[in-house]
Structures are given as C-alpha cells and as structure tokens.
Amino acid sequence: MTRLLIYEPSYRRVERELAAHAADLEVVVMNRSGVFTLAGAPVAAEDARLDIAWASGDLYLAPAARGFMGAVLGSPDFKWVQSAAAGFDNPVFVRVVAKGARLTISHGQAVGMADYVLAGVLDAFQRGPERRAAQAAAEWREFPFREILDSTWLIIGFGAIGQGVAVRARAFGAHIIGVRRIQAADPLADEMAPREALGELLPRADVVVLCAPLSPATRHMADAAFFAAMKAGSVLVNVGRGALVDEPALIEALGRGVPAHAVLDVFETEPLPAASLLWGHPRVSVTAHSSGVTGAQDERNRLLFLDNLARYLAGRPLLNEADSRDVLGEG
Questions:
Q1: b vs e for 280-306, b when ≥16 Cβ sit within 10 Å of the residue's Cβ?
Q2: Peptide bond into 259 cis (omega under 30)
Q3: CA distance 74 to 66
Q4: Any catalytic annotation for residue 241?
C-alpha cells in the first residue's frame, strides 16, 4: 500500500479521483494548522511513514509548508514528490533527492510565462513606457517602434517555457536560437547551441530570454562579461531564477545602455527590497515573480499530479522527472 501526503485544500480538489485508487493508496492529509490525519484519525508526523507527496501550489506560501516537507524528509522510505514548481533549486528538494527519492516538476506555468515574455518584449520594442508617459502628460507624440519580424531571439533554457516562447516569437517572424545541454535539433528552433557558445551568440541577439534552471553552473551566468557581449538595443528577459543574473552588473550595464531594457520577473532576493535600484530604473520592467500566475495553471498542475499518480501506481514512467544530477548540481 502506497501512502500519499497531501495538503487539505488540494485534497478537496482531487478527493474524488483519489478514491478510485483506494485499493492501492492511503492518504495522509495535512490541514492548514499542520495537523496530520490518516483515515480521519490524527497521526504524528514522525509516524506518517510516507511514500509519496504532492507539493501543490496551495502549499507553497502556506505556514504549514515547513511541517509538510519535514514529514517528507523524516520518512525513511520516501520515494517520490510531485512539485507544482517549474524549478528544482529549493534546498528542500535537494535534500529529498539526496535521500534517493524522485522529483517531478510542473510545466503548468509555461503557457502564462511564455505569454508574459512576449508581452514584455512587445512593450519594450513598442516603447510602452514612453507612450504611457506621453498619455499621462496629454502629449500627442509619435513613437516609431521596432518589429519582431526578422529579430533574433536567444532563448537560454529550451524546455517547456523556452519552447513556448519560441512558438510565440516565431509566429511574429523571429529567428530562434535555443540553448540547452542536449544538442539535438528542435523543430521550434532555427539553431541549437550549447551554453559554451554564448560569447559568440550574444552579439547576434536582439532578445535574450533566461529560462534556465538555477544550478551551480548557471548561477550569475548573466554577469559583466555576458552584458558586455550583448548587442546594442537588445532586450533581456529573466523568467528563470533571480540568481541567474548578477544584479549589480546588470544595473551597471543598463547605465551604459546595453541591454537597452530588462524585463525582470525574478530576483536574487524576493520580495525585491524597496531600496533596490531596479524598482525605479527607467530601463527596467519589474513584476513580482508572477509571470506564470494565470487562472489555468492550477488546473494544469492538478491534472499533471493525477496523471503522474496513476503512472506511479502502475509502475510507468513519470512525466517531467528532474534529473537527479541537475538537482544535486552534478550535471
């Protein structure tokens, strides 16, 4: 019998579907107060002896999250956690995988994040800040703007999010260069390249999109040398992780005009401190780590969990399984 841990608000949304697995599954429910129950009776976290867990979107900002993950880490035979996040750099997931457990991540945010990237680049290309300032001042002004047609987009991290960006940018006529570890050709990219080629690729790119996961190899990959190699007039977008970018180096580079604009949804310290120069910088668009927050992402995450649960119980391959070498920084 497999024992699943689930947060109560999430449980209410999948209770009916879980009942179909009753012959193979015991469900431990943790409520908002951090109390665990099994078959309606309280159970101590140290006695839960969990096999699998769903770290749902409901859980992430809940005060009970620490107790939830503590129970996971305290279960000696724990085998698999489904995360609602796209990334795997959270230290708790490193500890879970170090125990020998499997981690699957979610691409439920990818649709919204890809839309966000296109919106941010379009706004920068079409001089949105200047247009809004002119409207606020009741000034009748023309603003010639840039087209996406024939622009070159360098997408660093060509997974679900990067591929979603590629689909949208190509529809506007952009040339796509994808960067990822696996160098096989991809129908969504005009070119594929390794990260080691960035020095040659950055001077060609009108748009640079960071979608890569955070690891020791990618931390501060966008540093002073990275910005020095970027093309004049280019736009930087970061929807990966804040620590992909050396923020002081970015601020200095923005002061020199390259990149011409930065669209930032993630930051090394979150919430972004009020004293950060990024808040008021005229060449920066700031959002609060919300590029994937849409009305549809929770349902996509729910369906992914149910699909992977059925796969797990049947002994079939799981979707979106993270490579343990990447999670542990060994890749």
A1: ebebbbeeebebbebeebbebbbebbb
A2: yes
A3: 12
A4: yes
Active site residue 17: no
Name every residue whose Cβ is closer than 8 Å to that of residue 109 and which is 6 or more positions away in sequence.
86, 161, 291, 292, 293, 294, 297
**Separation CA 85–CA 60 (nearest Å):** 9
Chain position carrying tokens 């580079």 = 253
Closest of 234, 118, 212 to residue 170, by C-alpha? 118
Q: Which has the closest alpha carbon to 201: 226, 174, 218?
A: 226
- Tokens 């699943």 belong to 4
For residues 34 and 263, give the distance between their C-alpha atoms in angstroms, rounded to a whole number: 38
Neighbour-count burial for 28-37, b at 16+ CB within 10 Å, e otherwise: bbbeeebebe
Pairing label, strands 284-286, 261-264: parallel
Per the confidence metrics, is the pTM higher than 0.85?
yes
Catalytic residue, chosen from 46, 270, 299, 330, is 270
Could you give the domains of the chain? 2-108+296-327 (3.40.50.720), 110-286 (3.40.50.720)
Q: Would you state the pLDDT for residue 331?
A: 59
Of 168, 219, 289, 311, the active-site residue reads 289
Mean pLDDT by 10 residues, the chain (331 residues): 97 97 97 95 94 95 93 96 92 95 96 98 97 98 98 97 98 98 93 97 98 93 98 98 98 97 98 98 97 94 98 98 89 59
DSSP, collapsed to helix, strand or coil, labels residue 265 as: coil
Neighbours of 249 (CB within 10 A): 17
Question: Which residues face 284 on adjacent strands?
Answer: 262
Residues 3, 107, 175, 241: which is the catalytic one? 241
Q: CB-side exposure of 72: number of CA atoms within 13 Å?
A: 32
| Tokens of residue 8, six digits | 């109560």
**For residue 305, what is the enclosing H or E element?**
helix 297-314
Residue pair 320/300 in contact by the 8 Å Cβ criterion:
no
Cα–Cα dist 154/179, whole Å: 7
* Beta-ladder partners of 178: 155, 192
- Phi and psi at 152, nearest 5°, equal -110, 125
